[in-house]
User: What shape does this take?
Amino acid sequence: MTVFGTGYLGATHAACMAELGHEVLGVDVDAAKIERLKAGDVPFYEPGLPEILKRNIEAGRLSFTTSYEEAAEFGDVHFIGVGTPQRRGEYSADLKYVNAVIETLGPLLKRPALIAGKSTVPVGTAQALSKRLSEIAPAGDDVELVWNPEFLREGYAVKDTLEPDRIVAGVKPGGKAETILRDVYAKALSTGTPFLVMDYATAELVKVSANAFLATKISFINAMAEMCEAVGGDVTLLADAIGHDARIGRRFLNAGLGFGGGCLPKDIRAFMARAGELGADQALTFLREVDSINMRRRSRMVEVATEAVGGTLIGKNVAVLGAAFKPDSDDVRDSPALNVAGMMQLKGAAVSVYDPKAMENSSKVFPTLNYSESIEDACEKADIVLVLTEWPEFRNLDPQILDGVVRQKIIADGRTCLNPHTWIDAGWTFRALGRSVSVLPQ
Ligand SMILES: NC(=O)c1ccc[n+]([C@@H]2O[C@H](COP(=O)([O-])OP(=O)(O)OC[C@H]3O[C@@H](n4cnc5c(N)ncnc54)[C@H](O)[C@@H]3O)[C@@H](O)[C@H]2O)c1
Ligand SMILES: O=c1ccn([C@@H]2O[C@H](COP(=O)(O)OP(=O)(O)O[C@H]3O[C@H](CO)[C@@H](O)[C@H](O)[C@H]3O)[C@@H](O)[C@H]2O)c(=O)[nH]1
Assistant: This one.
């Protein structure tokens, strides 16, 4: 089988399919990325992936290429995992990479094949691509399309791919796709993973509705954080208390800076745009509010930090701990942490950023910020320390390490991940989104 696109999704999928025993060829237009992967080097940070990649390359089950001709010859199942980013200045998804795969691969398909779409696409895409394939593939209707959306989380990508919660297959009635895909995922299915077969449109909707639900859950708790700020309550106690109700559940109720990354923000916007195109925009107007609550948290963080240092950031040193959009990832796409760092710099602060894994990516997208080698280096003469990504080394930071390093002992928790007492007891002024220090129980 082949996997087109070897980014966060595609490289993980390719390596994990090889781990399941398949012969896999990863294909990308980025020659530098392919060279690194060939050498067994994962071009991004994903725990557990380097080991699987190397093991399967050495076993001869996994290889990489930039050649579509080689790929068409190599496999009879072709996964598509290329990017579907937000269009510049619009809400909708840009399908140019998915279309490019179909337009280039389609004419090379001379024998029966299954194309399995994994990229996140607007509802209606699979139907259109299926029609297009039957027009351009020499094997005609013997080239079948299945929509098989991916639900992996970065940081847990290997486990999520090898042991998914469910496998969704959007199929055309009467085809062979279900049988072939069941065979591809036989190992996961043998452990009882649900295999859910449905039409193309529902499969596409499952993916975006799952992300819309997760985004809504996060924005809900962040709206409660706003309420806690208005009355002096504590959103973490609130989340724990409502989370005990099994119908609500505590997972994905962590308040703070909100959601970023290459998926949730762009996916809810693309979903709204598609609803509009379908004349169903009213169904998703609530997602506008989900998006606004989410973006407001970033400016609120800047306000909280500015108030804490006396009302202005001009002439102030700000240490920012965290740049990745979440821990266990080096991904900085739509990172709330970098967004806050940038806003504070624009308001006159000298900002120093430290992240255990995302420094290289951050300096590419935000070259004007200062990047530090360590926590202590970032906090040198800081007037305030901001924790904006909850890496374990920040969550468990010992305040004593910063004694004599910072200029003022003020810390602001943007991810409700610190124990306030640890900092207050060490003589620090503690601020957090959604938590009022005056009401904290001992
Ligand atoms: N990252 C995730 O956690 C995740 C999870 C589930 C779904 N998704 C979805 O998967 C898709 C890919 O996301 P990603 O995060 O891996 O993106 P990414 O930007 O990391 O990777 C995309 C890759 O596709 C390659 N590419 C572009 N055009 C190509 C072409 N014509 N032929 C071959 N390769 C080409 C790019 O060079 C790049 O390496 C998106 O639709 C995303 O929404 C991502
Ligand atoms: O309680 C929470 C949980 C998450 N987040 C933030 O939400 C964002 C997204 O987190 P997460 O969903 O864990 O990361 P992703 O890797 O972006 O995964 C999401 O997006 C993927 C791409 O579509 C899907 O496959 C996954 O199922 C979906 O969880 C991050 O900025 C987190 O900091 C919170 O603010 N509070």
About this structure: The longest strand covers residues 113-117.
